[in-house]
Design goal:
Layout: H1 2-20, H2 23-27, H3 30-33, H4 55-68, E1 73-79, E2 87-92, E3 98-103, E4 109-114, H5 133-146, E5 151-157, E6 165-170, E7 176-181, E8 187-192
Antiparallel strand pairs: 1-2, 2-3, 3-4, 5-6, 6-7, 7-8
Amino acid sequence: MNKVRKIAAGATLIGALVGGGALTAMALPASAATTTTSTTAVDRSKHVQETELTGETATKVHEAVLAANAGATVDRMETEGDGTAVYEAHITKADGTHATVKLDANFAITATETGGKGGHGHGQGGNETELTGDTATKVQEAVLGANAGATVDRMETEGDGTAVYEAHITQTDGTHATVKLDANFTITTTETGKGGH
């Protein structure tokens, strides 16, 4: 009889715990009742904003680049944001081709990337060709019609599929932009800053 009473008492206790919602808390170990949330940090350090060079830094970069590229024209100079160098200068060489010259912190040239979009080296310039003849004239007229006083640095076909033609310009306030046009020479977008990268 004593054993039967103990079993009955145990059953009553279990029923009470279940009814009161306490069994779950007591039955689960602390480790199982705790939920841990982990967050993975996203590294955005590779997307550093490039800024146009000015003052003494611009002068030193300009001198170093022209010393190694006689007769070239420096289109723009800026910090290099992809980690491959400290500074970069986009130039038009004496033969009309474009290139990007990269320099380290001591203004020593570390690399010169030639061809396509001024040697931007972003993998989009392989099938872009410089505009000439009637096409170049129509693009220039459309661009300058919408950007009075600007200077057209170069014009080329657009190889990334966002437009048919593009013109890289220097605006009257000294800033750079890329103007994109469709097949009818209608401007579709104007990207400002960083030479319209």
